[in-house]
């Protein structure tokens, strides 16, 4: 009797231990992703708050010149120092956030929406639609991404509208391919067949049954694409193709500050660190979301 009880309880005990170990391991996997998500969100929230505040208040006018305070080092009056025209760098970095953040968001969300719609159409309908969308995508991807974007901005002219158009034309292809792959996998599922049998419209099947099931992969890529967009926006402004001075923008601040790198390194270091920290925050959020969705 005792031996029988032991034989019965031993597997149960082993199963309980294995279950606890599995729970511990899953918690350990979640902790790093939770930490990254919290840190990333904290960084992004600080930048968003600074951008909103800068629309209402900045310590100094970001545009106004003051030749009595030219190239001052960071001090109590000017936290980040001043530039070659005496403008307060802290105020200009704050105001630049109010420009970079919304432009980055639009330059990422527009190609995401457009590409997702094209991917839904190509994956669900196939045949002619699939061939047209894929061939156009192949044509766009035949050119180096940055080169094509520079050509588009050069043709359309420097400025925010040109940047948005160029980012959208170049960026939708990846979202379309990603969505198409997921749609082709899902559209033969039983719940989609049941929806067709029930007489649901094509629009309802696409946007209420298929789209919610492909949005996870799209969201993961979107977070990483935000990092690319903010860096690319700064790169275009640095090269003179993006947002034009005297409007403050992180890339243009770095570009104008490089002339005084030996004399006033803070003009390059501070905007560069600002851009890096914000991109790092976005990258942490993307990694955390990917970890959570994978596990």
Automatic annotation (TrEMBL):
Family indicated by similarity: Belongs to the binding-protein-dependent transport system permease family.
Any single Gene Ontology cellular-component annotation: plasma membrane
Keyword Nucleotide-binding: no
Membrane disposition: Multi-pass membrane protein
Positions of transmembrane segments: 37-57, 101-126, 146-175, 218-243, 263-285
The protein's name in its UniProt record: Nickel ABC transporter permease
PANTHER family in the record: D,D-DIPEPTIDE TRANSPORT SYSTEM PERMEASE PROTEIN DDPC-RELATED, OLIGOPEPTIDE TRANSPORT SYSTEM PERMEASE PROTEIN APPC
Cell compartments where the protein resides: Cell membrane
Biological process according to GO: transmembrane transport
Entries under PROSITE patterns matching the protein: ABC_TM1
Primary residence: membrane
Domain ABC transmembrane type-1: 101-286
InterPro entries in the record: BP-dependent_transpt_permease (IPR050366), MetI-like (IPR000515), MetI-like_sf (IPR035906)
This protein's UniProt keywords: Cell membrane, Membrane, Transmembrane, Transmembrane helix, Transport
Record's keyword annotation contains Transport: yes
């Amino acid at each position: 009797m005792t031996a029988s009880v032991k034989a019965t309880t031993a597997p149960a005990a082993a199963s309980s231990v294995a279950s606890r170990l599995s729970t511990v391991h899953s918690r350990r996997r979640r902790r790093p992703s939770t930490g990254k998500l919290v840190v990333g969100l904290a960084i992004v929230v600080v930048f968003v708050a600074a951008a909103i505040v800068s629309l209402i208040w900045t310590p100094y006018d970001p545009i106004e010149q003051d030749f009595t305070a030219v190239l001052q080092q960071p001090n109590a009056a000017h936290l980040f120092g001043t530039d070659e025209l005496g403008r307060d760098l802290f105020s200009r970095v704050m105001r630049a956030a109010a420009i970079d953040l919304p432009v980055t968001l639009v330059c990422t969300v527009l190609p995401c929406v457009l590409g997702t719609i094209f991917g839904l159409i190509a994956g669900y309908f196939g045949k002619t639609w699939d061939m047209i969308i894929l061939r156009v995508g192949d044509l766009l991807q035949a050119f180096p991404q940055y080169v094509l974007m520079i050509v588009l901005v050069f043709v359309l002219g420097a400025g925010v509208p040109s940047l948005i158009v160029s980012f959208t034309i170049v960026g939708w292809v990846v979202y379309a391919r990603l969505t198409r792959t997921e749609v082709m996998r899902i559209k033969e599922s039983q719940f989609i067949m049941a929806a067709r049998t029930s007489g649901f419209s094509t629009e309802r099947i696409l946007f209420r049954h298929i789209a919610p099931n492909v949005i996870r992969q799209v969201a993961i890529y979107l977070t990483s694409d935000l990092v690319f967009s903010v860096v690319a926006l700064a790169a275009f402004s640095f090269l003179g193709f993006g947002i034009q001075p005297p409007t403050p923008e992180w890339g243009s601040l770095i570009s104008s500050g490089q002339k005084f790198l030996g004399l006033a390194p803070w003009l390059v270091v501070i905007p560069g660190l600002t851009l890096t920290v914000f991109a790092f925050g976005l990258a942490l959020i993307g990694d955390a979301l990917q970890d959570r969705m994978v596990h």
